[in-house]
Design a protein that fits this description.
The protein is an alpha+beta fold. It has helices spanning 5-10, 14-26, 35-42, 46-58, 76-89, 132-138, 150-168, 203-219, 255-274, 280-288, and strands at 33-34, 62-65, 71-74, 95-103, 106-113, 118-125, 177-181, 184-188, 193-194, 222-223, 232-235, 238-241, 248-249. It is built from 10 helices and 13 strands. Strand 5 (106-113) and strand 6 form a beta hairpin.
Length: 290
C-alpha cells in the first residue's frame, strides 16, 4: 500500500498516466495486458512504453508477468491515481492531504474540493482486497456478473454508495456527495466521532436521533443493511451515518430482515453501554409505518 499517494500523484507524468489508462482499459480483455497493446492504445513507441513501464514497476504501480508472454496489470494504487487524476482535472479535488482512515475495504484521505471550496474527503474503495470470494457472495451489486476483477468490484461499490448518498442527502444525515470516479467518492468530511468511541451525556436523545435517520432513509426507500456503532458518527447537532455500499431498497426480498438487523445492532449497543431498553418490534413499526 502506498501511504504517500499525494507525492506519488505529483510525480506521475501525463505519459505515465496514459500508459496506466491503457492497461486499465485493456484489463477488460486480458489478465495480463501485452505491452504491444499498451503501446497501441497509448499511441507511443514500444521502446518508450517499455521505459515508462519500468518506472511504473519501480514505483509499484504495475505488476509484470513474463509467461506465456510479457504482460502487465495495475495495482489498486494505480487505480487510486487514475481516479484522483480524473477528479483533479474536473475540479472536484484541488488538494489532497494525509490518510485519515483505513478499513478492510477502503482508504480515506483528507482533500479540499474546488466544487464546495471546503474540506472534504476522498474514499477509495478496496472491495475484495481481503477476500475476493467472500465479496462475491456478500455484495448483491456483483452477484450476477460472471466476469469481474477486484478493481471492477470496487468501482461498482463506489457507484452504488454514491448513488445512495445522492438519494439520501440532505433529507438524511449523511455526508454530502460531491463527485464519483471509478472506485473513488468525494464527499463532505464527517462531523464528530465514531459512536463506538464516544461517551454520550444524553444517550436517549442520540438514540432517538439515530432511529430518526433510519426512518428518514426508509421513507426514501433505502435500508443501510450494515448499520452499527462503527459507521455512526456523533456530533453536538446529532449524528451522521456513513458507509452505504451494501444498502438495499425497501422492496428487496430481505428488506425486513436487514432492517431488523440494523435496528437490533443499534439497540444492542445502547442496551450494553447505557442500559437503555427499547422494544425492537415497536421501533420497527415506528420506522416502517408513516
Amino acid at each position: 500500500m502506498l501511504e504517500n499517494i499525494p507525492e506519488i500523484f505529483l510525480h506521475t507524468t501525463n505519459r505515465e498516466f496514459r500508459v496506466l489508462l491503457a492497461i486499465e482499459s485493456k484489463m477488460k480483455f486480458y489478465e495480463w495486458v501485452p505491452k504491444e497493446d499498451i503501446a497501441a492504445f497509448a499511441g507511443y513507441d514500444l521502446k518508450e512504453v517499455e521505459f515508462i513501464l519500468s518506472r511504473l514497476a519501480t514505483n509499484k504501480l504495475v505488476q509484470r508477468s513474463t509467461a506465456p508472454y510479457e504482460g502487465y496489470r495495475i495495482y489498486f494504487e494505480a487505480y487510486d491515481l487514475l481516479a484522483l487524476n480524473a477528479l483533479v482535472k474536473r475540479g472536484s479535488v484541488n488538494a489532497i492531504g494525509g490518510l485519515i482512515g483505513v478499513g478492510k475495504e477502503s482508504r480515506v484521505y483528507e482533500v479540499t474540493s474546488g466544487i464546495t471550496d471546503r474540506l472534504a474527503v476522498i474514499k477509495l474503495h478496496r472491495e475484495g482486497n481481503i477476500s475476493f470470494k467472500r465479496v462475491r457472495v456478500k455484495r448483491e451489486h456483483i452477484e450476477e456478473r460472471r466476469h469481474f476483477s477486484w478493481l471492477y468490484a470496487s468501482r461498482l461499490a463506489a457507484e452504488k454508495e454514491y448513488g445512495a448518498l445522492k438519494i439520501l442527502y440532505p433529507q438524511v444525515s449523511v455526508p454530502e456527495p460531491i463527485d464519483n470516479n471509478r472506485h473513488a467518492i468525494v464527499m463532505s468530511a464527517v462531523k464528530g466521532q465514531e459512536l463506538s468511541r464516544t461517551r454520550l451525556d444524553e444517550p436517549e436523545w442520540y438514540l432517538d436521533e439515530i432511529l430518526k435517520q433510519v426512518k428518514n432513509a426508509y421513507g426514501l426507500g433505502i435500508i443501510h443493511a450494515d448499520l452499527s456503532e462503527f459507521n455512526i458518527f456523533i456530533n453536538p447537532e446529532g449524528c451522521e451515518i456513513i458507509d452505504w455500499p451494501q444498502y438495499v431498497t425497501t422492496n428487496h426480498a430481505n428488506a425486513a430482515e436487514l432492517l431488523y438487523r440494523d435496528i437490533e445492532n443499534v439497540l444492542t449497543f445502547f442496551k450494553r453501554k447505557y442500559r437503555i431498553k427499547r422494544d425492537i418490534q415497536e421501533v420497527m413499526n415506528n420506522i416502517t409505518y408513516a
